[in-house]
């Protein structure tokens, strides 16, 4: 169950683009197709596209930071495959329309975005209640109509326990036998102008070792104070970006006293939430801890803890190998990236 790594791009030679951890040759490519305009034709999983409107957590973590921190945040977004313009003030192109000028050229081809949404409920006394992920591959034609007559060859690993589903218009037998996603009628084009979910997958487990980030929170009362020790432990399978662990607090007159923290923290006094921010969890910091003190309170008051992060690697071992036209068999340029996001991730 090791995940698949991020970005790929192919110049139309039909060869594999190296999975370079979510990166693209041109940052504008990345605007392609997370269904930001609400499209997505696949029903059950909400089109698999809502999540990359950024999770609410990380932006709030910027409240105390200055420009440098904001820029670091944008850099890490860019690193995981978001088109973020650090220098220029140009407004983003909509997912449907090409950007003005040069970037419209950069986006030509077939966009294939892979996204997984994670739903996890961890128990505060240890153990996993549920973990479910839902993935989608979204296709969007970003070039001429001739590139809408295509087939997509997909490489998948073992993926034990995953259930796959193709869009109703996709030839199910061809996918099952050859790993090729093509329309039942090869003489029909894929729809233009908005992303279409062509493949979905689901995975459920209660195996705690599969959880990407586990949280251990220990409130203890001593002498009129609650001392809260909280630690995270991350699996080696994923690097996690923009990790925000949000701990609810009892109503306070004064901010909590943070004795120690790996990373940064922000206290939101309107919502009575302490947010623990770790920009990046990788092999240098698979474990981390924080300790803070508030006036004595019931330990249940520090739950549910909400967790948010993204990764440019997915649980499902799936990637695009090639895209070819059904009309003349020629290879078509394609690009995209893989992202995992949290739909709902709680310690209760």
From TrEMBL:
It is a peripheral membrane protein. Residues 1-60, 83-102 are annotated as: Disordered. Gene3D superfamilies: Mu homology domain, subdomain B (2.60.40.1170). Residues 1-24, 36-49 have a biased composition (Gly residues). Keywords: Cytoplasm, Cytoplasmic vesicle, ER-Golgi transport, Golgi apparatus, Membrane, Protein transport, Transport. The keyword DNA repair does not apply. It holds the Pfam family Adap_comp_sub. It comes from the Eukaryota. Residues 107-348 form the MHD domain. The coatomer is a cytosolic protein complex that binds to dilysine motifs and reversibly associates with Golgi non-clathrin-coated vesicles, which further mediate biosynthetic protein transport from the ER, via the Golgi up to the trans Golgi network. Coatomer complex is required for budding from Golgi membranes, and is essential for the retrograde Golgi-to-ER transport of dilysine-tagged proteins. Belongs to the adaptor complexes medium subunit family. Delta-COP subfamily. This is Coatomer subunit delta.
């Amino acid at each position: 169950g090791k995940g698949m790594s991020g970005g790929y791009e192919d110049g139309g030679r039909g060869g594999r683009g190296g999975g370079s951890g979510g990166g693209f040759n041109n940052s504008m490519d990345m605007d392609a197709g997370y269904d930001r305009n609400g499209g997505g034709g696949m029903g059950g999983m909400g089109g698999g596209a809502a999540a990359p409107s950024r999770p609410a957590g990380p932006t709030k973590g910027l409240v105390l930071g200055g420009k440098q921190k904001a820029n670091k945040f944008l850099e890490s977004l860019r690193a995981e495959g978001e088109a973020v313009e650090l220098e220029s003030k140009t407004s983003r192109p909509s997912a449907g329309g090409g950007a003005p000028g040069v970037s419209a050229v950069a986006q030509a081809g077939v966009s294939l975005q892979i996204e997984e949404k994670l739903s996890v409920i961890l128990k505060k006394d240890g153990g996993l209640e549920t973990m479910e992920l839902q993935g989608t591959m979204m296709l969007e034609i970003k070039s001429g109509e001739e590139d809408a007559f295509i087939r997509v060859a997909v490489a998948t690993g073992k993926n034990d326990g995953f259930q796959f589903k193709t869009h109703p218009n996709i030839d199910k037998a061809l996918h099952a036998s050859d790993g090729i996603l093509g329309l039942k009628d090869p003489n029909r084009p894929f729809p233009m102008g908005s992303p279409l979910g062509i493949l979905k997958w689901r995975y459920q487990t209660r195996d705690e070792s599969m959880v990407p980030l586990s949280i251990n929170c220990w409130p203890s009362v001593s002498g009129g104070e609650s001392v809260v020790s909280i630690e995270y432990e991350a699996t080696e399978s994923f690097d996690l970006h923009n990790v925000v662990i949000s701990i609810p607090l009892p109503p306070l007159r004064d901010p909590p006293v943070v004795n120690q923290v790996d990373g940064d923290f922000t206290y939101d006094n309107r919502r009575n939430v302490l947010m623990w921010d770790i920009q990046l969890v990788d092999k240098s910091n698979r474990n981390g801890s924080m300790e803070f003190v508030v006036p004595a309170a019931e330990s249940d008051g520090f739950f549910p803890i909400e967790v948010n992060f993204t990764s440019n690697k997915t649980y499902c071992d799936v990637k695009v190998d090639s895209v070819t036209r059904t009309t003349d068999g020629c290879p078509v340029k394609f690009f995209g990236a893989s992202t995992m996001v949290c739909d709902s991730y709680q310690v209760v």
